[in-house]
Amino acid sequence: MASGKGGTGKTTLAVNLALALSAFHDVRLIDADVEEPNAHIFLRPDLEGSRTVELPVPEVDKDRCRFCGRCAEVCAYGAVTVIADSVLVFPELCHGCGGCTLLCPEKAVTERPRAIGVVEWGRAGEVAFVHGRLNPGEALVPPVTRAVKEFIRPGGVTIIDAPPGTACPAVAAVSGSDYCVLVTEPTPFGLNDLALAVEMVRKLGLPAGVVINRFDLGDRRVEDYCARQRLPVLGRIPFDRKLAEAYARGRTAVDDLPGWRDRFSALGREILERASNGRRPRISDVSDP
Questions:
Q1: Radius of gyration (C-alpha) of the chain in whole angstroms
Q2: What is the pTM of this model?
Q3: Partners of 115 in the beta sheet?
């Protein structure tokens, strides 16, 4: 579940689909929006375990170092700088690639783990639940996202709630998916950011479809764009004040509102069919918005 912008209803869709499909399938929901995870607010899982996500960062033995600058030369991220007879390490810039450790001619660079986040898991009724949380002040999202995705299991249905946007966090979340559902709204901003999200999944080679939230409050420009892109519109969710009220209370539509469980079950079956029937429709090369 992805979106070009925040506020489209992506998490609402992911949570309700997980609950609706859990009546028929073994469902796992992974909240990969590790900077702002919020699926747990609606699912209220019983957490069973957690583990720290660590990144190896360099540590320099100055007694062995000749200050040749090789470590700084190989670091593409500016995490190591050599100035005269000093080596400065900036852990928050390190991506943990290990190049400085491998290529130091004096073997003066070792690595130590640095905690950057945590992964927690448990269950919410019939739904297996996993989410990640990036530590405050940390900048590197993908390592925590990858740690969360390690909990994907063969068989059953895994729903990944990706972070909004099209930057590295979103790419790390959706990469390798069987099918990508792009959630949007029929507004100028929604259309603009949908086009960016389509470009992202095109470059990743992922089949995709669109769900239009609050479809009855806008115009047809999103629908026309999907037609030009040959993107299937998987579902159209109307604006419903009662659904918005349930969201504000941290409740779900499938549990609180009559008829919505059937709607999300039907949408889930459509998505699963497209993800598994072997046709795997691809995004066209048309890119005009």
A1: 22
A2: 0.88
A3: 54
Mean pLDDT by 10 residues, the chain (289 residues): 92 96 95 96 96 95 93 94 92 92 94 96 97 94 95 92 95 95 95 96 95 92 95 93 91 92 93 73 36
Superfamily of domain 10-26+155-276: P-loop containing nucleotide triphosphate hydrolases (3.40.50.300)
Residues 162 and 145: beta-carbon distance below 8 Å: no
CATH number for 54-115: choose from 3.30.70.20, 3.40.50.1970, 3.40.190.10, 3.30.870.10: 3.30.70.20
* Distance, first Cα to last Cα, the chain: 21
Q: Is 98 helix (H, G, I), strand (E, B) or coil?
A: coil
Q: How far apart are CA 92 and CA 86, in angstroms?
A: 19
Read off the DSSP letter of residue 279: -
Closest among 252, 234, 253, 48 to 131, alpha carbons compared: 48
- Measured at the alpha carbon of residue 135, what is the angle toward residues 133 and 140, in degrees to the nearest 5? 90
- CA distance linking residue 13 with residue 253, whole number of Å: 10
Tokens 């972070």, located at residue: 163
